[in-house]
Each structure stands twice: as C-alpha cells, then as structure tokens.
C-alpha cells in the first residue's frame, strides 16, 4: 500500500512540472469530444469510492492531465441531457470567457428531481428540521416533483419567463427549495437573499439584479422569534420598480396584508397541475446568482451556470463527504448562503440524496439542538461553520455527550479557517475520534469545494485545508505573480484554470469580474486569500490577503495568530487586525471574546487574560507578533454566515469611526458601537 503522505509530498513537484495548455489554444477547442454520439439516460450515482485511497492521486492526476476527458466522462454519467454537448470546455481566463459543455441542453430541476423518479420516487429528498424541534417533515422525490411543478405552473401564470431574475426571500424551508427548482424549471435565474436582511439590503439586491418577481413567506420563525418577512418585502418592493408580482408562501399562517401585486402561493399551487414542462436550457445559461457575504466590501452578484455548476456540486458532495445512497446529509446553515445552495440543495439532490434543511439555530431551544437533531434524524454527514463549532465548544461537552451521535461518519467545516482547538473538539468530542473531518475551503465564486481532504483521508492536520479537489490547481504566488514551487512556501492563493463549477461573471458587471478576479494575476483566478504549502505539501489557508499583517517586516496571517489566541482556555473567539504604527509599520490589534462564564467588563480578570495572551504569543510565535492592544467584548461583528468582518475591526482599531463602511450584511450591528466605546477609552 502506498502511504498518502509519501504520494502527496511529491505532488507539488508534479504539479509544478505540469504545463496547463493555454486555454486559448486552438488544439483545445478543436478537441471535440465524441459527445455527439451519446445521449445519456444513466441515473446511477455509483461513483467509485475514492475517498482517502491512493485512487485519489490517480484521479487527480487524470483530472489535471486531461480535464476534458475527466469532466466529459463525469458529465455524461451524472447529468441528464436533453441534447448532448459538442465542446467540453473553452476557457480564456484572461477575458473571463469560461464555457463548459457548449451545445448541451438540459434542465436543472429535471436533473435534481425527475431524474430520480424511476429509481427512488419514494426515497426522502428533504427533511425539514423546523425551528420547533421534533416536528420534522419529510418530502419524497415524488412529492418534490409535484410541488416543484405546481410552483412552476404558478410562477408561469404570474408572468415569470425564461431569463427573468426571481428574488427569493425565504427561511430555510422546503418551499424555498421548490422555488429554486421551479425557477430552474422555467429557465428563470434565482437570486436567494438571506432572510435576515433588512428592507434596504433586500431592495439593493433586487435592484442590482433587476428582478421581476419576489417569492417570500408571511412570516419567518427563528429561535422562537417571529420575523415579519412579508412586511420587509413590502417595504423593499416599494423601492424596486422592476417588481411585477410578489408570491407569498405560508410559514406561520398568521394573516398578513396582501396588496394588488401579491399572490397567495399556497392557494395558487393547490389549483395548479402537478406536472409542468421544463424549459430546455443551454449548459451555459445561468442557473442562479448569489451575492457574496460582503466580508471584504460591497457584495458581488456572483453568477453560476447550469451544467458545469450542477456537475461540480454533485461531484464534490459525493467525494468530499463520501456520500452514499441512503445517507442523511445535513448542512446546518442557511440556504441563502452558497453552502446552502451547493450542499443543501443541488449537490444532494443531484445525487439522489436526503438533505436536511435546518431552519433553527445551534442555541435553540438550548445548546444541545444540533446534537439532538443528529440523534433524532440519524444524520450521517454534518456540515457547518467554525463559528457554530466554537460557540458549542464554549458550552461544554455535556451537551454533546447527552446524545447518541453514532450515526455520524463525516464532519465538515466551511466559511472560515478552523482553529486547531475547534478542529480537535469537533473530531474528538463530536466525532468521538472515529469520523472523518473535512475542512473545506471554497468561495461563492468557486461554486463548490476546491481544497479539502476527502472523507477517510488519514493524512490530515488540524487546521489545514489539505489538498485540491479534482481539476483544481492551487497556485501560491509571490506579490509579483511568480509561482512559488515546491513545499514550505507561503503567498497568495490563485487558481490556475477554471473548472466547470467556477463563476462565470458578476451579474451585469463583467468588467468588475475581470478586475476583481482575473486581472490581478493574468492567467489565474485570484482568490483574495493567502495560503501556504507546508513541508508535507498540505495547503493551509492563512486568511484574507487584505488581512495579512506586516509587523516590523514580518508578514503574518490572521489565522495563525487567532489560532494561538483561541487556544487559551478562557478565550472563545478572536479576530486580529493590523493598526498603523510609525515604527513597526503595523502593530497587532486583537479582539477577543471570552468563554461563557468568564466576565467581560471585569477589568482585573480581563487584564490577567490579556497579559497571558501576550506572553503566549511571544513564546509561541515571536515577540514581534505580540499584540499591542487587546479589546475583550462579548461579541464580534459577523456576517450572516458567521464570518468575522475584520475590515470593520481594522477601522475601529485605526480610530476611523466615521469610515466603518458598508455594514448592511452585518448580522449584529449593535456590537460595533460597543467596540468603538472600548476603543475610545484606549486613547
Ligand atoms: P466577500 O467576497 O463579499 O468579501 P466572503 O468572501 O466572506 O464575502 P464567501 O464567498 O461566502 O464570501 O466566503 C468565501 C471566503 O471564506 C473565502 O475566500 C475564505 O476567505 C473564507 N473561507 C471559506 N472556507 C474556508 C476554510 N475552510 N478555511 C479558511 N477560509 C475559508
Ligand atoms: Mg470573497
């Protein structure tokens, strides 16, 4: 048996030697696949079991050596085509010309639903884990088909046409999935806006996408609290001239005012035929657009294609998590986030799987919620964010140990770097040391997981995203754009090539797409993140490039400093930013949240912890990295997907209180005022 470590440690030199054919090469375009000869109706999901085996290495190599054959075979096997494609890929990265499976015709809702009717009509497609625990609802593929068709017919009557953009402002519930798939059935592009946004945040996204319709609910429910969603839509739509009709689904059933452009979706669906024809779409037609989290600036309306995205979401779902038919897969997060799209809806449904839609929060009705749900629904793969893991870690192991978690096989993390302490807790306390942990790095822009171990992979390290998925060439560049080859290198992470799942544009802002991702390093897709490849060839994400600190000439990523601070037993979470310093260039400014039960605002207790933290960093990383300032607060500013917004913390550290910037995507804007108050006291 080969050891994965041995194999992997050789990879950088292998990838270094690879010459990726220039995408513009005529040879590549001319390399037409014999696709015209097939018309696949194969609905099986039996991917070979590559997770963690030496097979990974050979599949990876094939995917790099000959991407067209690799993805072409996968597309033939896993997508249901109305018409086969003619050209597997044509990619001119510098112009943002990315096309996969040109000439192919298909429909996403047919691929996610109709495709399964023959083999698994009565299998569970969705389990809706409502905000109220213990009242889950199960939807079979057969039910899903009928609901999607009824909704598609309703939308058609309401005037939705191919290529219209439909905004969804809905809680995580089956109707949101019906709506996504109903749009796809009609060839309309969906744009899901997270249900926590204010009327202004929603209006900005509707206007930027020029949506014609909004689908919403009467009211949402989260952690027992009622959210007046229809009311928010009314306020938003008043500022959105493009909206023709608002369709309202039932969630609480409480009466809400209905105006002249409002339609009762449930009533309309009842009177609609449960069959609807599906528009025949081209591979490259847009399936959806989705705004990024806004961690680093104004959100971008990232647009994804149909065929390439579906294929990439299904392949990554299957391989990274080792999803097997009959498994129950749960993403504990919101559908309004790319992870909800790729691993709450499209990946699992493409694979004929069962996906849990989790409407609640990790703390409702108590800190055992995740674990009670795992036990009750017998969840096999659990996917969530480091911020949720850190929150639950703080509450103590008793909450986890109360429940039977023996169904769990793979535990995934996404959204931010997971610090080793949280990783170890996830592995040992939640996974009891017998589950695979997959720390998955990717972005809204990449459509699916790009760097992650595969389930069963033994050659992993706490905190490392580890290795690329099939077809991904992660390149580490120096500031001049030179590729840093070999191991033990650190720089900016860029992706050489654009695989099938990559974003195609920023909706109606292609120039911004080029400026943001493709012009910084010609020939590469620039991620905005920093990364290092360690001595064993494992990839670590070091944080956002904008967040990298330069202290007395030492460059240091936020992830490393934060991991060290978080390892303090009384620290729950932290965020580090740089502050201008005349002598050092930058000094380290740390924001810290203490463990439950540790008193914030108790100056003596805080001072002890701060002294301790400074000592630890000096000892473990070096005196240069010692924070000059530390603020303890019970909360840090976060996006709706739980990411810490360091750009706000940077402004607070700099004392630039009036230049905080766009905080519309902030989940907890109140905490900014507290931080400013504490910061002012330092002057
Ligand atoms: P915006 O692009 O608007 O600033 P955002 O980047 O937070 O928002 P997303 O696309 O949801 O929006 O997040 C992708 C980013 O999240 C990555 O670029 C990376 O910084 C971070 N990230 C995601 N997963 C991981 C991970 N496993 N390890 C480290 N960082 C991660
Ligand atoms: Mg981003």
Automatic annotation (TrEMBL):
<dbReference type="InterPro" id="IPR032387">
    <property type="entry name" value="ACAS_N"/>
</dbReference>
<dbReference type="Pfam" id="PF00501">
    <property type="entry name" value="AMP-binding"/>
</dbReference>
<protein>
    <recommendedName>
        <fullName>Acetyl-coenzyme A synthetase</fullName>
        <ecNumber>6.2.1.1</ecNumber>
    </recommendedName>
</protein>
<dbReference type="GO" id="GO:0019427">
    <property type="term" value="P:acetyl-CoA biosynthetic process from acetate"/>
</dbReference>
<dbReference type="GO" id="GO:0003987">
    <property type="term" value="F:acetate-CoA ligase activity"/>
</dbReference>
<dbReference type="Pfam" id="PF13193">
    <property type="entry name" value="AMP-binding_C"/>
</dbReference>
<feature type="domain" description="AMP-binding enzyme C-terminal">
    <location>
        <begin position="560"/>
        <end position="643"/>
    </location>
</feature>
<dbReference type="GO" id="GO:0005524">
    <property type="term" value="F:ATP binding"/>
</dbReference>
<dbReference type="InterPro" id="IPR011904">
    <property type="entry name" value="Ac_CoA_lig"/>
</dbReference>
<dbReference type="InterPro" id="IPR045851">
    <property type="entry name" value="AMP-bd_C_sf"/>
</dbReference>
<dbReference type="GO" id="GO:0016208">
    <property type="term" value="F:AMP binding"/>
</dbReference>
<keyword id="KW-0067">ATP-binding</keyword>
<keyword id="KW-0436">Ligase</keyword>
<feature type="domain" description="Acetyl-coenzyme A synthetase N-terminal">
    <location>
        <begin position="56"/>
        <end position="112"/>
    </location>
</feature>
<comment type="similarity">
    <text>Belongs to the ATP-dependent AMP-binding enzyme family.</text>
</comment>
<dbReference type="InterPro" id="IPR000873">
    <property type="entry name" value="AMP-dep_synth/lig_dom"/>
</dbReference>
<dbReference type="InterPro" id="IPR020845">
    <property type="entry name" value="AMP-binding_CS"/>
</dbReference>
<dbReference type="InterPro" id="IPR025110">
    <property type="entry name" value="AMP-bd_C"/>
</dbReference>
<dbReference type="GO" id="GO:0005739">
    <property type="term" value="C:mitochondrion"/>
</dbReference>
<keyword id="KW-0547">Nucleotide-binding</keyword>
<dbReference type="Pfam" id="PF16177">
    <property type="entry name" value="ACAS_N"/>
</dbReference>
<feature type="domain" description="AMP-dependent synthetase/ligase">
    <location>
        <begin position="116"/>
        <end position="506"/>
    </location>
</feature>
<dbReference type="InterPro" id="IPR042099">
    <property type="entry name" value="ANL_N_sf"/>
</dbReference>
């Amino acid at each position: 048996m080969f050891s994965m470590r041995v194999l992997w440690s050789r990879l950088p030199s292998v990838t270094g030697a690879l010459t990726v054919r220039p995408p513009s090469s005529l040879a590549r375009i001319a390399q037409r696949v014999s696709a015209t000869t097939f018309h696949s109706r194969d609905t099986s999901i039996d991917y070979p079991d590559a997770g963690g085996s030496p097979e990974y290495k050979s599949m990876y190599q094939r995917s790099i050596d000959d991407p067209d054959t690799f993805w072409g075979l996968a597309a033939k096997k896993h997508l249901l085509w109305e018409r086969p494609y003619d050209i597997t890929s044509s990619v001119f990265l510098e112009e943002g010309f990315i096309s996969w499976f040109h000439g192919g015709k298909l429909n996403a809702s047919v691929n996610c639903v109709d495709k399964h009717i023959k083999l698994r009509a009565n299998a569970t497609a969705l389990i809706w884990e409502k905000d109220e625990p213990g009242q889950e609802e199960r939807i079979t593929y057969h039910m899903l088909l009928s609901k999607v068709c009824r909704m598609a017919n309703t939308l058609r009557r309401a005037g939705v046409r191919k290529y219209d953009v439909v905004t969804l402002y809905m809680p995580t519930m089956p109707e949101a999935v019906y709506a996504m798939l109903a749009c796809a059935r009609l060839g309309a592009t969906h744009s899901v806006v997270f249900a926590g946004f204010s009327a202004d945040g929603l209006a900005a996204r509707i206007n930027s996408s020029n949506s014609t319709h909004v689908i919403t609910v009467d009211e949402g429910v989260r952690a027992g609290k009622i959210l007046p969603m229809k009311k928010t839509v009314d306020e938003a739509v008043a500022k959105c001239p493009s909206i023709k009709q608002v369709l309202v689904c039932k969630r609480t059933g409480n009466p809400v005012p209905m105006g002249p452009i409002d339609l009762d979706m449930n009533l309309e669906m009842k009177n609609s035929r449960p069959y609807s024809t599906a528009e025949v779409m081209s591979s490259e037609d847009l399936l959806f657009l989705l705004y990024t989290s806004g961690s680093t600036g104004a959100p971008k309306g990232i647009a994804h294609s149909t065929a390439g995205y579906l294929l990439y979401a299904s392949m990554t779902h299957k391989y990274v998590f080792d999803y097997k038919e009959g498994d129950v897969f749960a993403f504990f997060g919101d559908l309004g986030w790319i992870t909800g799209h790729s691993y709450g809806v499209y990946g699992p449904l493409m694979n004929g799987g069962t996906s849990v839609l989790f409407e609640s929060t990790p703390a409702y009705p108590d800190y055992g919620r995740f674990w009670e749900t795992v036990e009750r629904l017998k969840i096999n793969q659990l996917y969530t964010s480091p911020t949720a893991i850190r929150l639950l870690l703080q509450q103590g192991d008793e909450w986890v140990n109360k429940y039977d978690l023996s169904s769990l096989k793979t535990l995934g993390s996404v959204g931010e770097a997971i610090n080793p302490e949280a990783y170890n807790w996830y592995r040992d306390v939640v996974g009891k040391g017998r589950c695979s942990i997959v720390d998955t790095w990717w972005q809204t822009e990449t459509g699916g997981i790009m760097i992650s171990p595969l389930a069963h992979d033994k050659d992993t390290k706490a905190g490392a995203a580890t290795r690329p998925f099939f077809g991904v060439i992660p390149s580490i560049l120096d500031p001049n754009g030179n590729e840093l080859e070999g191991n033990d290198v650190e720089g900016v992470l860029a992706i050489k090539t654009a695989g099938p799942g990559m974003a195609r544009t920023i909706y109606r802002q292609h120039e911004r797409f080029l400026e943001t991702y493709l012009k910084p390093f010609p020939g590469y897709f620039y991620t905005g993140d920093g990364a290092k490849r360690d001595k064993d060839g494992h990839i670590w994400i070091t944080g956002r490039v904008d967040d990298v600190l330069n202290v007395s000439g030492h460059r240091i990523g936020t992830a490393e400093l934060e991991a060290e601070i978080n390892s303090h037993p009384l620290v729950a979470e932290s965020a580090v930013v740089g502050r201008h310093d005349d002598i050092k260039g930058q000094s380290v400014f740390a924001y810290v949240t203490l463990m439950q039960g540790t008193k914030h605002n108790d100056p003596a207790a805080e001072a002890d912890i701060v002294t301790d933290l400074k000592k630890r960093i000096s000892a473990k990383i070096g005196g240069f990295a010692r924070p000059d300032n530390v603020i303890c607060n019970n909360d840090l500013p976060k996006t709706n997907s739980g990411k810490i917004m360091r750009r706000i913390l940077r402004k607070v550290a700099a004392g630039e209180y009036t230049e905080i910037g766009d905080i519309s995507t902030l989940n907890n804007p109140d905490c900014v005022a507290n931080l400013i108050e504490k910061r002012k006291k330092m002057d």
